[in-house]
Amino acid sequence: MHGWNGKLLRVDLAKGKAVAQEYDTTLAKNFLGGRGFAIKILWDELKSGIDAFSPENKLVFAAGPLTGFPLPSSGKLVVAAKSPLTRGYGDGNLGTMATVQLRKAGYDLIVVEGRSPEPAILRIDDDEAELLDGKDYWGLGAFETEKRLKEGHGRTSGVLAIGPAGENLVRFANVVSQEGRAGGRPGMGAVMGSKKLKAVVIKGSKTIPAADADKLKALGKEAYKEVLKKPNYDFWKRQGTMATIEWSQESSVLPTHNFREGVFDEAEAIGGFTMEKLKVSQRGCPQCNMTCGIVIEDENNLESELDYENVAMLGSNTGLGNLRQVAALNRLADDYGIDTISLGNVISFAMEASEKRLIDHEIGWGDFNEAKALAEDVVHRRGTGALLADGTEAAAQKLGGNASNWAMNIKGLEITGYDCHAAPGMALSYGTSPIGAHHKDAWVISWEMRVGREGYGEEKVDKVIEFQRIRGGMFECLTTCRLPWIEVGFELDWYPKFLKAATGVTMTMEDLFTIADRVYALMRAFWVREYKSRWSSTLDGLPARWYDEPITKGPFKGASLDREKYDSMLQLYYQKRGWDSRGIPKTKTLTNLGLRDVTQELSQYVKLTA
Ligand code: PTT
Ligand code: SF4
User: Of 437, 119, 496, which Cα lies nearest the Cα of 259?
Assistant: First the structure.
């Protein structure tokens, strides 16, 4: 094989063993890498209905066929498992040196199974892989863990770590690297914690085999130059994703006060231009010349790397209009290893519950000190924090009444930074995202603002599917960053060329989209296998707030979504995907995608439509 190393590292934590295994070329060609590898392994190897925190769950770290080569923004890694938050398929994507080192060590992925009796560190150094005692690291933040591991194993090592949130099984704990790269929103850090795996430290020194190394090198050189030439490049380097704050405010989609509103009175104070004045440095993922991690000093004069989602969810959505305070919450989340998006959601949920006097805890909108104390309590599962550590869906069930109407999640995963009262296309994107509410698969909102936001027409369904194929399929399987394409206009047709030079395999965009559809059908099958007869199209529905509580401010005052029209859009989406009216892939669809074996297993749990 070229491009792919053709090898995975299987780690059995209970036995304390790590074994290299070769994998089949059909896995590479049919599933490509990253998310594709992860879902295929989780589908094949997990039993239906296991507890996500049991040793039977498996944690997959998967790179792709372009990872580690000198190609634009190719230093990314997918981390996946059955999610403890949603109880469905969960994954995330982070930029990290660990992914480059993994590929240079000769592997494309790591599959971690079982549970270690004591805290452990997985060390990989080319062909050597061993489990080290992690007791001295347990309880440390992700930053200190990485620092110490690099001191012990070399500064160029790649490190993936969890913080106390993962150790304490907070259901939205994630995996952290490089003090500001974090991934695995649906609790991948908690799965790592349940396995008592504190960190992975990787060093590799091999050359990744390319089909045409000279061609790949030349293409990479040309591609990096092309990125630099793009007209939006300079502005991107100034503000990165943070420019979205002003855009969201102008578009009336900036989540505010637990998604009650789409405009925030203090948006300017947390926006991209304010951030520019506070900027102290800039960081990024390996292999990238668009480095978008912009660092400011927080309330305590400590460095914090900001992104749009972090600031929208910890800022406007909680009513906090002070960027250095938002940065302090963001830093706390990175060091403790907890997802900023869900953290912002649970804090704003608590603020609303407090306002409605449903909890015995006083916390007002924009109260930084209370928000910080609550975040600490979530991480350590104390008091109201314990209620919130399982996510808004579980918290709303415990509160009862109509709390689930304003618990802002879909399938249990908290909604990311776009209010959809007046954005039905984006709402469909959230509803059909394969991991629960996330914008990563189909960020159609910017397109939707241009074509007319009121409509529920077919073109919106088509756009959601098109974006899911490109972003959720192609980029997540190639495991490269999608931002060069979406943010500066780096053309998509580079990717089949990179793939050909790396692997020798010719794939058209259509071929890549077929892989994307296969991966989507399998992710959906995974959810259905977990939910069984409880699966229905209502799981792709939206929180009642977006239908029943119109926004009261800004240019879209009075707007809310129409439930019937949303449901019709959803049915059209299913038809176009070849899924039935419950949102379950039909036998014919699965068979056409080469997933006949999936129909056999799935039909044990639900009746499939021909
Ligand atoms: C992603 C989600 C996002 S999406 C953000 S900011 W964004 C939040 N970042 C967090 C963080 O930081 N710390 C933390 N403790 N929790 C966080 N949770 C949130 O996680 C990130 C960039 C960004 S910044 C985005 S959009 C793009 N995402 C990509 C993706 O998903 N796939 C892909 N092929 N390329 C992408 N490129 C961009 O990467 P999840 P990162 Mg992230 C600190 O994890 O679970 O996927 O959720 O990885 O290395 O930090 O880069 O405005
Ligand atoms: Fe990482 Fe940003 Fe570069 Fe993407 S553009 S690879 S998120 S630094």
Answer: 437
